[in-house]
Amino acid sequence: MNDKEKIDELLHHLRIKATDFAREIKLNNVQTIYDIQSGKIGISKSVFNKITKTFPEISKEWLFSGKGEMIMGDDISQSIEDSQNAQNVHVKHIKGSVTVSFDSVCNSIKYYQEALRIQQEITVEQQKQISKLIDAITSLAGK
Q: Is 129 found in the same domain as 71?
């Protein structure tokens, strides 16, 4: 597998365009990706390092030689592959896209659920205090 095919497969897997990919790996010039895709140049050490740093799930062996599976652990079985793919969530938004781990999303949800629970407890206590103040004001107003 040549470097053009590797980049094409990587972009297809990530479901992003070359411009977004270049931005994600912090490459200053998207033309470098276009040049790799056209076969003019290969994947340089710098581009290799940027890709593997940004996408640690990409097999360095695959990116270097084209041998093995693109995603580390991808050779176990289809059912395991499906569950592993579910471990990462690719989020697209106006300013680009990012891949986050399923665990980090779950941890964030748990954090915000706990923060919400605490805020609800505070609100209940504040409502009790307001009721007591209203009762006290009503009592004083009635005298």
A: no
